[in-house]
Amino acid sequence: MGTSTGPSTGTGTRTQSGTEAVELLTGAQLHALADEFGDLLVDIVAGGNSLGFLAPFDHAEAAAWWRARAADVDAGRQLLLAVRQQGRLFGTVGVALTDKPNGRHRAEIVKLMVHSAARGLGLGRTLLAAAERAAVTHGVTLLVLDTETGSGAEGFYRAAGWTEVGTIPDFAADPQGVLRPTTLFYKRLARG
Length: 192
What we know:
Layout: E1 3-7, E2 13-17, E3 20-24, H1 27-32, H2 34-46, H3 59-74, E4 78-85, E5 88-97, E6 106-114, H4 123-137, E7 142-148, H5 152-159, E8 163-173, E9 179-188
Parallel strand pairs: 6-7
Antiparallel strand pairs: 1-2, 2-3, 3-4, 4-5, 5-6, 7-9, 8-9
Helix pairs in contact: 2-3
């Protein structure tokens, strides 16, 4: 488990988990780092993971998509966490909060990404654990997510204590436009 180390640059919050610093970003920080986030997203899509995007997917489009998310971060509709080392962005994850009065106890894990150059170092586990902790601090007791069926992410989420709900056929297209099934997961969180 991480411990809060207080404010970092801007008004984001930094959490130390092992040797990785996970930062909860503000909208202004996201806007300033949009080019780095664009690089990360392009790397992920080029690696065969769509995350909602189709190939070809260029950097300008990716950076613009991230800049558009800054308003959601500032409005409190989304928490955005990132791992940066030596001035380079290596991973990110979002927690999409709901504004529905009957659903404020739940949120969705979105866009968990680790750069291809940093895979296998535990950054995905670090980011997911930090996202779960951040969700708890915002009153969330139930998280949901979806991932492509048959991908390595399924085993990753199971190993992290997530429960599979089921599979939906032809849910989303991969980067080449081929429809793929998705697997839904949930995880209950204990209040701190």
